[in-house]
Each structure stands twice: as C-alpha cells, then as structure tokens.
Amino acid sequence: MSVAETLAAAKPRSGRAISFLFFAIAIALIVATPFLPNYYVRVINSLLIYILLGIGLNIVIGYAGLLDLGFVAFYAVGAYSYALLASPQLDLHWPFLLILLVAACLGAVTGILLGIPVLRLRGDYLAIVTLGFGEIIRIIINNLDWLTGGPKGIARLDKASILGIQVARPIDFFWLLLITVLVVGTLVWRLERSILGKAWAAIREDQDAARGIGINTTNAKLAAFATSATIGSIAGAIFAASQRFVSPESFTLQESVLIVLMIVVGGIGNILGIVAGATILMLLPEVLREFAEWRILFLGLLMIFLIIVRPAGIVPRSFGPDKLIRRLFGK
C-alpha cells in the first residue's frame, strides 16, 4: 500500500476518534454539571440560551442567507411576554407552559411583521433595516413605563413550574434548557433537510434563480423569519423565568452582534458550529476574567485568528450533525 493510500485510510479513523473525543467531553460536561457550584451552572445556562438563540438566528442567516441584525428583538418579545404574564406588573400569573406557547406565537407574528416589509431587500440594506427594527423594539420597551417598567424593568417574576414541578434552581433550568436545545436543534436539523430547507438553500445561493424554478420565495422567507423568531422568543421566555427580572439593558444591539459572531466564528449554517462558536465566545471571557483589562483584546485577536485560519468557521457547513452521527455510529 502506498503512502497516499495509507494516509487516506487513516483519515476516517482519526476523524472518528476526534468525533468520539468531543462526544465524550460533551457527555462528561452534562454529567458533571449537577455537581458544580451554582455560579458555574448559571454560566452553562447562559451558554445554552445563546446556543438556542444561535440555532434560531442560523435559520435566517445560515439557511436562507438573509443577514438579520435585529434578532434580539424577538429575544425581548419572549422575555417581556413572560414578565408581563407572570408578575404583579399586570397582576397576571399564567402557567409557564402557557406563557411559553404565547411567547412562541407572538414571536412568530413579530417575525412575519418584520419579514413582510423587507421581502425585496438584500445584503446591506436588509441588515440596516433589521438593525433598525431591533432598536425600535428596545426603544419602545424602554419608554413604555406604564407597561414594561421602562429602564427599571420588571422584577419579582413568578417562579416557573411545569406540571406542578417547580423550576427555580439553576440546575433545574439547566435540564430545561438542555432538553429544549436538543429538541429544537433536532427539529431545525430535520427542517434543514426538508423541502422547505431545500427552498431556503436555493434562496441563499440565488434568489432570482430560485424564483425562476418555481420556488415561492415570499412564503419561504416569511417561514424563515417566523421560525427563527419563534425560537428566539422561547429563549427569551426561559431567560426571563431563570432571572426573574428583565430590563431593556439585556436586549441591546451588542447582543445581536454577539449572536451573529457565534454563527460566523462557529460555522454558518451548521448547528455544531453554533455550539462551538457559542462555547468559545461565552466561556473564554469567564476563563480570562482575572485579566479584565485585556480579555476583550484577547477575544478580538482570537476571532481574527479564527476567521483567517478557518474562514468557513470552526465547524464548516460540510460537517453537519448527520456526518457526526455517521462517524460515531456508522461505518
């Protein structure tokens, strides 16, 4: 056997070993989390929330190729849905699951309302309009004192409970978020492989060509915005329930940019890449907390390095969940 044949035969084995290694690390982290102090559990909960947000935004940016810089607006819609329906603010105390459903529906409607005026926009123009939409939502929340509490926010939110089981401790939200991320991630992955997912891919590559072969680009884009916004609102509702306090400061433009960076650094259009990008951008600042004056610089240099070395992201689109499953359990 030649050297080239030997290297070609060794490559799948090494790739499978790396896949097993990362899979083992993920399982070990899940098993170890219940035994960690509450502070670290809260950090992991924040990571899971951002993974959920990244999965939602990836539908618009990664699958449909539409640059959305106002995604934080849907995050805010979900958070304030819980805050208004489970607090003394309006003297309403609805069940958590019902509020989650309401937040998802409101998110979908808001996503469609954003999608309708921007159907004909592309590229930078679309980014500017969505950025403005996110800022409009934040300003409205900040100024409606009688409803949202204004800059002071809304405090004393009800503790969440599911089927009579109270979800209040950080570890409780860890299991809730983990299950939510797994379920949403699986559904979105299957959606990518569906007919609608193929339509999004066609729009991403060439909208005019997609329209020319009979794809209803209007409905496909609206579906992308609605699905993405639904996931963002669900993440916002769980965030509000875990913090039991919301304010406009949590929904700034920087949050939208951070979520976009997670997708770009991790790998556009790849759920595994979102996990990798979120892990780096969320956990690295915690690791560098002792170097508070320099950690933003380190983070910026790391992102520049990754973009130069891995322009397609840490986990490129070609290595999706299906390929990981084949490497772990297939031939």
From TrEMBL:
Coiled-coil ranges per UniProt: none
GO molecular function: branched-chain amino acid transmembrane transporter activity
Key word Transmembrane helix present: yes
Lipid bilayer topology: Multi-pass membrane protein
Family annotation (InterPro entries): ABC_transp_permease (IPR001851), LivM-like (IPR043428)
Cellular component per GO, a single term: plasma membrane
Subcellular location: Cell membrane
Transmembrane segments: 20-40, 47-76, 96-116, 123-141, 173-191, 222-245, 257-284, 296-314
Annotated keywords: Cell membrane, Membrane, Transmembrane, Transmembrane helix
PANTHER family: HIGH-AFFINITY BRANCHED-CHAIN AMINO ACID TRANSPORT PROTEIN BRAE (PTHR30482:SF10), HIGH-AFFINITY BRANCHED-CHAIN AMINO ACID TRANSPORT SYSTEM PERMEASE (PTHR30482)
Protein name according to UniProt: Putative High-affinity branched-chain amino acid transport system permease protein livM (LIV-I protein M)
